[in-house]
Amino acid sequence: MYNYKTECNNSLFSLFMEKQKLSTLFSPKSVAIVGASDKEGKVGTAITENVMKLGYEGKVFLVNPSYESLHGQKCYKSLIEIEDGVDVAVVVVPAKFVLDVVRQSADKVKNFVIISAGFSEIGKDGVQREGELALLAKQKGLNVLGPNCLGFINPKINLNASFAAGMPEKGNIAFVSQSGALLVAALDIAKKEGLKFSSLFSVGNKMQMSEIELMEELGNDKDTKIIGMYLEGINDGKAFIETASRVSQKKPIVILKAGKTEKSQKAISSHTGALSGSDEIMDAVFEKTGVIRANNLEDFFEMLEIISSSAAPQNEKVAVITNAGGAGVLATDAFKGRSVKLADFSDKVKGELGKNLPEEGSVENPIDVLGDAAEDRYAHALETIAKEDIGTTLCILTPQEKTPVGKIAEVIIDFKKKTDKVVAAAFIGGGLVEEAVSKMKEAGIPTFAFPERAVGILDQYYKWSQRKGSEKRLKGKEDCSERKGIVAGIINHAKEEGKKALRFDDAAKIMALYGINAIESHYFKQGEEVPEGMKYPVVAKIDSDRILHKTDQKALVLGIKNSQELSDALEDLWNRFPGEEILVQPMLSKGTELILGINRDEVFGSIVVAGLGGIYTEIFKMVDFFVPPMNHEDIVGKLSEGKTAFLFAGARGQEAFDADEVANVIGAIMEFAGEVPEAREFDINPMFIYNNGEKAVAVDVKIIF
Question: Are 343 and 318 in contact (CB under 8 A)?
Answer without folding.
Answer: yes
